[in-house]
């Protein structure tokens, strides 16, 4: 067995174990990956020796090992998404002349992770570390629109889960769903006056290699300074930024759905 296929098979084992809630028998691993049992056992023995999988003899199953956990922890420490995204956000702010930011979903809120401010632009209530209800922000709506419907339903099980600001924002799951249908159809999310009176935002979601939305990228601008043509240019710039981050994360940008 050459080294290149072995590496690919080992990575496939890790990804398979990560997708499942609990450890798996070697026979299940072999079947799901289309590998011979002898090959599977050799892989598992080698990976166990390095700590990437652990054998549970009483259960006759294999699970992720400590080395796999250490890789995940190292990923968080190195903040690769922020490092990949920051130069893109800088280019987005320079290209548009407006403040740009990146958020991640944190429960029903969005957490602001990167802020690129443009000199002379209006001050914002958002800053790194600030949290706002996802349903009120363009970046949050962009992320929610890319989530599976069941996950959105789990996040917003009742009317009590919805928060309004300045009298804006959906107040029920059915209204939120209608908003998300529009977001998916047009390929971007937008809000006006929901966060700050007189300001609006347009946003798109960045996806990982599994098509999962990992971040929302937005541009915020004064409503009275941006006409329809300029707004369309801001949408294009924001989409470019989100799509480029998606590519850097190993994902594939999704084209807008036709209504």
UniProtKB/TrEMBL annotation:
The keyword Transport does not apply. GO terms for biological process: glycerol metabolic process; negative regulation of DNA-templated transcription. The keyword Transport does not apply. Residues 67-251 form the IclR-ED domain. Keywords: DNA-binding, Glycerol metabolism, Transcription, Transcription regulation. Gene3D superfamilies: 3.30.450.40, Winged helix-like DNA-binding domain superfamily/Winged helix DNA-binding domain. GO terms for molecular function: DNA binding; DNA-binding transcription factor activity. It comes from the Bacteria. Pfam families: HTH_IclR (PF09339), IclR_C (PF01614). SUPFAM superfamilies: GAF domain-like, Winged helix' DNA-binding domain. Residues 4-66 form the HTH iclR-type domain. May be an activator protein for the gylABX operon. This is Glycerol operon regulatory protein. It comes from Ornithinimicrobium ciconiae.
């Amino acid at each position: 067995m050459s080294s290149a296929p072995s590496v690919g098979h080992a990575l496939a084992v890790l990804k398979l174990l990560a997708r499942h809630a609990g450890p798996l028998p070697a026979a299940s691993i072999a079947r799901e990956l289309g590998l011979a049992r002898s090959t599977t056992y050799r892989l598992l023995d080698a990976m166990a020796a390095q700590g990437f999988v652990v054998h549970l003899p009483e259960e006759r199953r294999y699970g992720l090992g400590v080395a796999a956990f250490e890789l995940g922890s190292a990923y968080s420490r190195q903040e690769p998404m922020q490092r990949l995204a920051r130069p893109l956000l800088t280019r987005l702010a320079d290209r548009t002349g407006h403040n740009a930011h990146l958020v991640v979903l944190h429960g029903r809120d969005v957490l602001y992770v990167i802020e690129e401010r443009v000199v002379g632009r209006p001050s914002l209530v958002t800053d790194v570390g600030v949290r706002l209800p996802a349903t009120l922000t363009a970046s949050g709506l962009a992320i929610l629109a890319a989530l599976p419907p069941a996950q959105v339903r789990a996040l917003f099980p009742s009317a009590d889960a919805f928060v309004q600001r300045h009298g804006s924002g959906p107040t029920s799951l059915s209204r939120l769903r209608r908003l998300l249908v529009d977001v998916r159809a047009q390929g971007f999310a937008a809000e006006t006056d929901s966060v700050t009176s007189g300001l609006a935002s347009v946003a798109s979601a960045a996806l990982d290699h599994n098509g999962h939305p990992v971040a929302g990228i937005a541009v915020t601008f004064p409503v009275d300074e941006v006409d329809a043509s300029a707004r369309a240019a801001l949408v294009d710039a924001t989409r470019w930024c989100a799509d480029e981050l998606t590519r850097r994360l190993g994902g594939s940008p999704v084209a807008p759905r036709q209504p």
